[in-house]
Design brief:
With about 750 residues, the chain is an alpha/beta fold. It is built from 13 helices and 34 strands. A hairpin with a 7-residue loop joins strand 7 and strand 8.
């Protein structure tokens, strides 16, 4: 366990739940509104940060990058829209510090426009430029922005706080120093450098990349590819605009998750370069060819007061373990939908690979055990057959769909339609078309699952043959998906795949070819080499893996939320004994809910015919509990009723390649109740307390918060001073899941 993470932990951690955070409205006179760059309106980048820990890091070969304390730094460069909020708050009457340059309206500028007259200025930026990095800003402008953040935005002072300026706007400011205890600041060169180049997970205990895109190769300029940036290569990437929206190169983050440190605009840092006593700037820009290579840009003419189109900045800040908060449920919400009505549909199901009358029998028993979907993996899904067998398969499939409809269940067809195309591509796609056109009108049909574990089928390595196999297989998936979309006109039917290990080197290659995916895990196999502790950490592997899958959605906007599939049950056809041990109910339940708190949608379990009575009873118990939450899930998942923030804690383990959050949460709401789902992913906490703003509760009378399906509850405490409800301290340990049910109304 790393020292920094131990220092960040406390035994009693307070988690704060904030409801209904407001946002400013860009482009409207906000003279009476408080600007908030951390919660920008929809469509505009909010000021986000990532935590840079790992204080044991060694310096790079050039002596740079060593920082022996945790801090945070902007995920993106400060944007034009964020800077316009700053101007509207601090330069409305007059602009004595020249915070806005007239050059921003020139070609290549970020196009912040000022209207009105002195005493009543207004600053605005058109939507197409709003997410550009602010440019034409000098070092003093960046310092004043930091002071404003430190002082709480709004009417916050720009002249004191982090940096004592008092009107200063000279050429070097060599006596300017950061005030101890600063909340926000311009990063030093080492702070900037570490965030850009250092990777704590490189072999050998951490190391540095040559470029801030996690690469030792010079970046390209393809917006859709990895290792890319906005630089000058024989010309500007965009001859007219010069700039690109922050985060445009979504597949090219640093190891810590920052963007554009290799291009767009050079960024000011706090370090005073000696000689010639000038403030530093780092990175690449739209006008540079070095693309952020590990060296300081050479310039003896840029001073602290220089404003230029290729100069911008990103903000950094202190990490306060008692106060630092991040959103715990900020994942994209794009749920699977019911093909019959387009409403969110939360799948709870089993795999069935038997076929025939036994499958019909299983289907009826699954329905009794509260499943609402079955993933059917049997011969009736096959199109690669002779004509007579093909007709028989279609008839059997329709019979199965009819029975599912009678039972109120949906069917997810797993099929080998990605295909070898062994006759020829035209013939194979013709069979798929005939199959789809036969079954697609059936109301019980949920979706199509094209392949199980394609990362193994295509090759998971980095060799040229593996990459070629991956490309061929991904292309086959895409052609099949495109065909299904033509022949099944229902917009809510999806194509899916199943992955085993996420992340692997090749799995993201398949994401453009599907609409959503499942992730299989074998977290309960005590003998697995992935779990050197003998399976003790196994359940954590599912939410860890699923969090990677959800993170990929930010790069693939078409993807729906993935679903976990618990591989704790099944039989080996060559061995009558169970292939995996029988999981405890608490383990299965933890994997399901912990995955949901990081952004998944749905719960699947492995092959039904291999499940013992104990396992089936446990799954049925979980299904019954989830049924109680489905109304709240379907009502809340797309637009959460409130936002949860809490003190961020990161943990690493020998069998995980990166961090997971110590506690993850999900908030839901139905007609009568609010629900707070919390999952403990580490066990280092002795006590946990939640603070919540609950606008849905109209009075402050005491009320019990009961834990769903458990025999204990706690009385909510109301804090008059903060208008917050508090769930008092209670113990949690690794694997605990609590579903707090908070009534909106209590009877007198």
């Amino acid at each position: 366990m790393k020292w920094s993470l131990m220092k960040l932990r406390t035994h009693a951690t307070i988690l704060t739940v904030l409801f209904g955070l407001g946002a400013t409205i860009h482009g409207v006179d906000q003279s009476n509104a408080r600007a908030d760059v951390f919660h920008m309106p929809e469509g505009l980048k909010s000021l986000e940060t990532v935590v840079i820990a790992d204080p044991e890091n060694r310096p790079d070969d050039n002596g740079q990058g060593r920082v022996n304390y945790p801090y945070k730094i902007g995920t993106y460069e400060v944007t034009a829209a964020q800077y316009a909020e700053f101007l509207n708050a601090t330069a409305k009457k007059t602009d004595p510090h020249d915070l806005r340059s007239n050059n921003t309206e020139e070609p290549g500028g970020c196009q912040i426009k000022r209207t009105g007259e002195e005493g009543n200025y207004h600053y605005d930026v058109a939507p197409e430029f709003a997410n550009f990095p602010v440019n034409e800003v000098c070092f003093w402008d960046a310092c004043r922005f930091a002071n404003w953040l430190h002082n709480g935005q709004g009417n916050g002072d720009t002249e004191t706080g982090v940096y004592t300026l008092k009107g200063r706007k000279g050429y070097d400011g060599r006596n300017l120093v950061r005030t101890p205890g600063a909340k926000w600041f311009i990063p030093t060169e080492d702070e900037w450098y570490k965030a850009a180049y250092y990777d704590p997970h490189k072999s050998g205990g951490g190391g540095y990349w040559k470029y801030p895109t996690r690469s030792n190769e010079s970046p390209g300029r393809d917006r859709s590819a990895a290792n890319s940036a906005n630089n000058y290569v024989g010309g500007f990437l965009d001859e007219k605009l010069r700039l690109t929206h922050v985060g445009t190169f979504a597949k090219s983050p640093s190891a810590y998750g920052t963007y554009d440190q290799s291009g767009n605009v050079f960024e000011w840092n706090e370090t005073l370069i000696v000689p010639p006593f000038l403030r530093g700037f780092r990175g690449g820009s739209f006008a540079s060819e070095d693309r952020g290579v590990r060296k300081r840009p050479v310039s003896h003419s840029i001073s602290s007061r220089t404003e230029a189109g290729y100069l911008g900045f990103r903000i950094a800040g202190a990490v306060d373990p008692a106060a630092e908060s991040v959103a715990a449920n900020d994942f994209p919400r794009r749920p699977l939908r019911n093909p019959e009505n387009g409403k969110p549909f939360f799948p709870m199901g089993w795999f069935d690979n038997i076929g025939g009358d036994r499958s019909l029998e299983y289907l009826r028993t699954m329905a009794e055990e509260k499943a609402n979907v079955v993933l059917y993996v049997a011969a009736p899904t096959d199109v690669d057959a002779g004509e007579a067998e093909f007709k028989s398969n279609l008839a059997a499939m329709m019979k199965y769909l009819d029975e599912a409809q009678r039972l109120g269940m949906k069917v997810l067809i797993q099929c080998g339609w990605y295909g070898s195309f062994r006759d020829n591509e035209t013939v194979h796609l013709g069979r798929i078309r005939k199959y789809v056109e036969t079954v697609s009108a059936h109301p019980a049909l949920l979706a199509y699952q094209l392949y199980d574990e394609p990362e193994y089928k295509g090759g998971g390595g980095l060799s040229v043959p593996d990459q070629q196999a991956t490309a061929v297989f991904a292309d086959a998936l895409k052609k099949t998906r495109d065909g299904i979309r033509k022949w099944d006109k229902n917009p809510h039917r999806t194509t899916q795949v199943v992955f085993n290990l996420v992340p692997l080197s090749s799995w993201v290659d398949y994401l453009p070819a599907v609409d959503t995916f499942q992730v299989d895990r074998y977290p309960l196999d005590a003998a697995s080499p992935y779990f050197p502790q003998g399976g003790g950490w196994g359940p954590l592997m599912m939410p860890w893996s699923m969090s990677h899958g959800v993170a990929a959605m930010s790069n693939y906007k078409h993807l729906l939320n993935p679903a976990p599939c618990m591989q704790g049950v099944g039989t080996d056809s060559n061995n009558p004994q169970l292939l995996w041990r029988t999981p405890l109910y608490e383990e299965t339940r933890y994997m399901a809910y912990a995955s949901m708190t990081v952004g998944t949608w749905g719960v699947y379990h492995w092959i039904y015919n291999g499940a013992s009575h104990t396992i089936r009873t446990n799954v049925a118990r979980l299904h019954a509990e989830l049924r109680q939450l489905i109304p709240a899930l379907e009502a809340s998942y797309e637009k959460p009723p409130f936002q949860v923030t809490h003190a961020y804690q990161g943990i690493t383990r020998d069998d995980l390649s990166d961090r997971v959050a110590d506690i993850t949460t999900l908030t839901l709401e139905d007609r009568d109740n609010l629900y707070l789902i919390s999952a403990d992913n580490t066990g280092v906490f002795k006590d946990v307390s939640f603070r919540m703003k609950l606008p849905q509760i109209q009075d402050t009378r005491p009320r019990e918060a009961a834990v769903l399906n458990e025999s204990w509850s706690l009385e909510l405490e109301y804090d008059e001073a903060t208008a917050e409800w508090i769930i008092p301290k209670h113990p949690m340990r690794f694997g605990d899941v609590n579903i707090w049910v908070i009534p909106k109304v209590v009877t007198p």
